[in-house]
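Bump. Still looking for DoxX family protein structure tokens.
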Amino acid sequence: MNKSLPTISTSLAWLLAAFFLFGAYGNTFISEENAAAYVAWGYPGWFHYITAILELAAGLLLIRAATRPYGAGLGALVMAAASLTTLVNADYDHAVAPSIVLLVSLVVLSLSLAVRRTAN
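Sorry for the wait, here they are.
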């Protein structure tokens, strides 16, 4: 196994965890602009709390190597939903970030599974 693979995987996972933890905070204490976006996308007023809980869970799961694939998978699902929501609603300005984070989540998932396979 490439000795740098675990380091790269861990570094990307920690950056992704920081993104999701920051996102959880932002969705818990939502701005008026983002609250209006959720309503425009057709979500109920409380839905941002669901997003915050899922992002918090993904962020926490990403921190430990043992749970990293679950965090990356959950994060990918959350970002796939966010990407789909913005694309269906033709809100293309908001579609870029979740699409990039979806890609990073899938990379972290792949890397963490590869590290896990080679460690066994």
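The radius of gyration is 15 Å.

Edit: fixed formatting.
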